[in-house]
Specification:
The chain is mostly helical. The two termini are about 35 Å apart. The protein contains 14 helices and no strands. The chain is globular, with a radius of gyration of 24 Å.
Length: about 290
């Protein structure tokens, strides 16, 4: 085809479709197996060796057990609290720092920006971080799951690039009208940056929701464990879930309980992501290109 790209041949299209279908199957089938096993009866799970793709009948006893109280229900509440609170704190401090670094009147602006960039390549390490958390009295508190990771240099750089690309005429006009820096940020910059903030918020939320190592080293009380640490204990370490843990009289098959916990740990992100997907490409790519 002259003047443009040649259309792919039929064999090439078939090959691409086949590869794409196989890739989708490799991603979807394990998830279907996890969901199906969590809702399958105990006898079918035992006969199938622990993994079921098509349950003979739906059995929700695993979900009833883990949501009726006990450590799993408590851990779910902790994860929600840490994720919502941590995302709010991270978005706030990241937006304030990113906006500050875009202001030309800020003394040593380039040096401060360089410090943020350098922090991408050098991390303090586990032991200094632990000692810092200990010195501030944050051990065995939920604040230890939020404050040490509240600020991401990468996210600050993306937000700074996005904020810096906003039309300067709008900000200049607001300054002439007497708007303060905080008014500029809250009334102009943030409303115009919803796409970038949605993406950065998703990054932070996924990080807080999936984090378990911080809880493992900072929390001594199992009553404060987030869901991911409980999931690791019951699935990775293969610990047995007891009636004491679940506050339930009926204890379903162990694989069903493990898969049900796994489904509950994945479901919130799956529900949130479609609402933010429309902002993902615009927010991430625009900030990266402008930076």
């Amino acid at each position: 085809m002259s003047g443009g790209q040649a259309r792919p041949s039929v064999p090439a299209t078939i090959a691409k479709g086949t590869v794409f279908s196989i890739a989708c199957a490799l991603v979807i089938l394990p998830f279907i197996g996890i969901v199906a096993t969590s809702m399958a009866p105990a006898e079918q799970i035992s006969a199938a060796g622990g993994l079921v793709l098509f349950p003979e009948r739906l059995d929700f006893s695993a979900y009833d057990a883990i949501l009726s109280g006990g450590i799993v229900t408590r851990a779910l509440g902790v994860s929600v609290l840490v994720t919502v609170g941590g995302t709010a704190v991270s978005l706030t401090v990241s937006s304030l720092l990113a906006y500050t670094l875009t202001r030309r009147a800020l003394p040593f602006r380039r040096g401060l920006t360089l410090l943020v960039v350098v922090s991408l390549f050098f991390s303090p390490g586990l032991l200094p971080t632990y000692l810092a958390v200990q010195s501030y009295g944050l051990l065995n508190s939920l604040a230890a799951l939020i404050l040490p990771t509240a600020l991401s240099a990468f996210n600050v750089i993306v937000l700074r690039a996005f904020f810096g690309g906003l039309p300067p005429d709008i900000l200049d006009a607001a300054e002439i009208d007497g708007a303060s820096e905080m008014r500029l940020l809250t009334s102009i910059v943030i409303p115009l940056s919803k796409a970038a903030l949605a993406v950065i918020g998703l990054f932070y939320a996924v990080g807080y929701w999936n984090a378990f190592f911080s809880a493992l080293i900072y929390l001594n009380d199992s009553a404060m464990w987030p869901l991911q640490l409980v999931l690791r204990t019951y699935v990775v370490d293969d610990n047995t879930i007891t009636g004491y843990d679940l506050a339930s009289d009926v204890i379903p098959a162990q694989p069903a309980l493990q898969m049900a916990i796994l489904v509950i740990s994945v479901l919130p992100i799956l529900l949130v992501y479609p609402w933010l997907q429309k902002h993902f490409a615009k927010g991430a790519l625009t900030g990266a290109i402008k930076g």
